[in-house]
Amino acid sequence: MPQSLSKIYVHIVFSTKHNQNLVKEEIRKELQKYIIGCLTDVKSYTEEIYVNPDHLHILCTLPRTITIAQLISKIKAPSSKWLKPKGITNFEWQDGYAAFSVSASNVDTVKKYIINQPEHHIKLSFKEELIQFFEKYGIEYDERYVWD
Question: Of the candidates 52, 61, 82, 103, which lies 20 to 30 Å from 26 by C-alpha distance?
Answer without folding.
Answer: 61
